[in-house]
């Protein structure tokens, strides 16, 4: 296994001062092998999230294909202040480029200003900043959230034959993806072919399975009737499935049943789809996003021009198409 691949696990367990010394040693070792080292600092919004874990692992895996590349990955722990500190640390460590998966997509201006002032290339990953600046050394790599919720909601509409009561489990509303995916669903049910669908409740489950379980359990206990749970991500969809099972509610499409939909196409979600519990999910390509982010960061770090926005397509997954996605996990 290449030494660069190990840098995340070493850094995650060490204080920043120790990480700086380890990074210096690693860069020196890399250069000794005859390749000029390139360091990319990566601040993830949080490690404790299934999709972001896939994304982080994809970054590490793709980095092993790039000789001389060192990734320094930090966990922002869901805190804007911690992410700011991460970026300041990367600048102090003289990283060649910085990749940020934002904690709050409305709080990125200071991060952009810090990197720009330091003359360091900056790539935002997965979560689109509310104010992405037209800057030559700042870019975004991710998937177009105008499509994620739209693909999900249209599939739900088709399964419900254009009519029924739905609830929405929203993600963290400080995140552009949560707001956009929710708006996507609301736009779809306004279309003529889905006009018989009614939104009867929506609340934030903060992307978390346990919070989604509590919300759906509360709705059931309150006597709220609904035909579908449309979740902003798979983790919340899985929480909904657990709540429905606990309440003895039949899951699926059809009279007297509740169907469940999500977004991300995580391994756990595919297991539930195979079991007949998850009707719809939308594949978010972690490997594609990771590759795009590293490639873009390297291009910008070299002083070359890169696409300011690189879209990695979403893809609908249903029981009819699950085979090709399950085989790749």
Name the descriptors.
alpha/beta, disordered N terminus, 329 residues, 12 strands, 43% helix, four-stranded parallel beta sheet, Rossmann fold, 2 domains
Account of the protein in words:
The protein has 329 residues and is of the alpha/beta class. The protein has two domains: 3-143 and 285-312, Rossmann fold; 145-283, Response regulator (Rossmann fold, 3-Layer(aba) Sandwich), CATH 3.40.50.2300. It is 43% helix and 19% strand. It contains twelve helices and twelve strands. It has helices spanning 7-12, 16-32, 50-63, 80-92, 109-118, 145-159, 176-188, 209-221, 234-246, 267-274, 286-301, 322-326, and strands at 38-44, 69-75, 97-100, 121-125, 138-142, 163-170, 196-204, 228-231, 259-261, 281-283, 309-311, 315-317. A six-stranded parallel beta sheet has the order 2-1-3-4-5-11, with helices on both faces. Helix 9 (234-246) links the parallel strand 8 and strand 9. The longest helix has 17 residues, at 16-32. It is elongated. The protein starts with 6 loop residues before the first helix and ends with a helix. Mean pLDDT is 90; it is low at 1-14 and 17-34.
């Amino acid at each position: 296994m290449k030494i660069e691949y190990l840098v995340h696990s070493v850094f995650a367990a060490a204080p920043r001062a120790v990480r700086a010394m380890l990074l210096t040693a690693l860069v020196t070792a890399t250069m000794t092998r005859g390749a000029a080292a390139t360091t990319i600092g990566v601040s993830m919004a949080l490690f404790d999230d299934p999709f972001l874990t896939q994304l982080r692992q994809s970054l590490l895996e793709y980095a092993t294909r790039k000789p001389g590349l060192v990734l320094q990955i930090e966990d922002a722990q869901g805190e804007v202040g911690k992410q700011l500190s991460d970026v300041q640390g990367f600048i102090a460590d003289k990283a060649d480029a910085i990749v940020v998966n934002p904690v709050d997509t409305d709080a990125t201006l200071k991060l952009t200003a810090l990197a720009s002032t330091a003359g360091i290339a900056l790539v935002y990953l997965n979560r689109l900043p509310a104010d992405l600046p037209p800057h030559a050394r700042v870019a975004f790599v991710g998937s177009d959230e105008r499509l994620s919720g739209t693909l999900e909601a249209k599939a739900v509409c088709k399964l419900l034959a254009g009519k029924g009561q739905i609830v929405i489990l929203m993600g963290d509303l400080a995140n552009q993806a949560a707001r956009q995916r929710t708006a996507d669903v609301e736009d779809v049910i306004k279309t003529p072919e889905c006009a018989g669908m009614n939104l009867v409740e929506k609340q934030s489950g903060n992307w978390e399975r346990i919070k989604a379980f509590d919300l759906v359990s509360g709705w059931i206990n309150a006597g709220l009737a609904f035909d579908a749970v449309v979740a902003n991500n798979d983790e919340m969809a899985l929480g909904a499935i657990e709540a429905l099972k606990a309440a003895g509610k039949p899951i699926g499409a059809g009279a007297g049943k509740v169907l469940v939909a999500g977004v991300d196409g995580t391994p756990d979600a595919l297991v539930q789809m195979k079991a007949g519990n998850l009707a719809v999910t939308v594949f978010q390509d972690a490997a594609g996003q990771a590759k795009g982010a590293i490639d873009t960061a390297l291009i910008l770090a070299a002083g070359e021009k890169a696409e300011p926005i690189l879209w990695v397509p979403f893809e609908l997954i249903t029981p009819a198409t699950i085979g090709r996605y399950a085989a790749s996990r």
